[in-house]
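Reminder to self: tokens first, then the designed residues, so the page reads top to bottom the way the pipeline ran.
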């Protein structure tokens, strides 16, 4: 979950100058294209330029889509109401492609509201590992959030960082967080509060629990929909004194909804490289279904040398943190869990986005070596 939009903060001119310098001093060869990682010595160019080059190399033209008419099926019988129609590319939740219903409910003109549906299946990890000891966990077995370890972050980031630095649209409240039946549930709603069009929740362990090195497992089921942005992440505990990105950031899991992106999650590290913003990340995609359909476990294993990301114990990303330029990751970090709506990365919700949306967390477990 990026705290500041570096592109807007720095402007493209700085990137242009850096990129020109980079291409003068280093040549990307054809055999590098398409590889997940390749080594470039730091002295060739700064990581700002590398980030932009990766961005440019990965860009592709978006294909236009053909809009279709979708008809509301409020009684879920597979037949659509001809009086309630949306014209768009994606199939909205609660809509079908036919308009043959003759006995739809009397409230068919009301928008369909999502209700909480906790998956009954999914991946699980053990509650102990050989040569490791449990140092903290939250199984969410109570009736409310355990504020011995968790803080609520309230508002929209203003006046310091309005929109939380990402032009997000939600206003965070305590009321959008519930703990029930052994699960943490963060609910994003479409409702107006303090000039915001949506409400949600954001919680952290700053000042209450921190970690330097170890294994983290978080079992969760994710929401869906254009503009929906759940995140499970970590920030350097020293953020109040050094700011971002100098404090460092570890994104254990991020997902951006819409356009078929609900089957893909991202694991990323962010840091300050000699006064310049830098990041490195990879993504992982399911072969079928989405991250809403079942529980999955999002993990990192963090040592003094590397951070490695996993989904359901499948490794998909690793970063070497031994260079002095990445010394942020030798410090204490705290945890954050939030469900954002809108923002620079996912884009805003559209007519296909239905509310409420839910981020459901079964447990967070933290281990360290004996």
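Designed residues (370 positions):
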């Amino acid at each position: 979950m990026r705290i500041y939009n570096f592109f807007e903060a720095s402007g493209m001119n700085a990137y242009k100058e850096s990129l020109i310098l980079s291409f003068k001093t280093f040549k990307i060869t054809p055999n590098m294209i398409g590889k997940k990682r390749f080594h470039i010595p730091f002295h060739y160019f700064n990581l700002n330029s590398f980030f932009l080059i990766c961005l440019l190399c990965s860009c592709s033209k978006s294909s236009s889509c053909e809009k279709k008419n979708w008809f509301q099926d409020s009684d879920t019988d597979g037949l659509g109401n001809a009086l309630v129609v949306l014209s768009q590319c994606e199939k909205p939740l609660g809509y079908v492609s036919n308009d043959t219903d003759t006995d739809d409910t009397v409230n068919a003109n009301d928008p369909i509201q999502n209700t909480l549906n906790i998956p009954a299946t999914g991946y699980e990890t053990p509650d102990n590992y050989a040569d490791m000891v449990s140092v903290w966990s939250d199984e969410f077995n109570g009736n409310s959030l355990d504020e011995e370890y968790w803080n609520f972050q309230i508002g929209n980031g203003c006046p310091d960082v309005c929109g939380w630095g990402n032009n997000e649209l939600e206003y965070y409240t305590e009321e959008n967080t519930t703990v029930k039946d052994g699960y943490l549930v963060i609910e994003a709603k479409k409702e107006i509060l303090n000039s915001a069009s949506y409400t949600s929740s954001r919680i952290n362990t700053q000042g209450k629990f921190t970690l330097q090195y170890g294994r983290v497992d978080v079992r969760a089921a994710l929401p869906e929909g254009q503009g929906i942005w759940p995140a499970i992440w970590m920030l350097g505990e020293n953020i109040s004194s050094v700011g971002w990105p100098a404090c460092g950031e570890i994104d254990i899991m991020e997902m951006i909804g819409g356009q078929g992106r609900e089957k893909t999650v991202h694991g990323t590290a962010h840091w300050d490289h000699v006064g310049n913003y830098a990041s490195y990340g990879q993504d992982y995609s399911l072969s079928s279904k989405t991250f809403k359909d079942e529980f999955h476990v999002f993990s990192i294993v963090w040592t003094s040398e590397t951070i490695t990301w996993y989904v359901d114990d499948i490794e998909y990303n690793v970063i070497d943190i031994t260079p002095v330029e990445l010394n942020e990751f030798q410090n204490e970090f705290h945890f954050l869990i939030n469900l954002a709506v809108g923002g620079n990365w996912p884009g805003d919700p559209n007519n296909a986005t239905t509310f409420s949306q839910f981020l459901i967390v079964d447990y967070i477990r933290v281990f360290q070596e004996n």
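Residues 3-63 have pLDDT under 50 and may be disordered.
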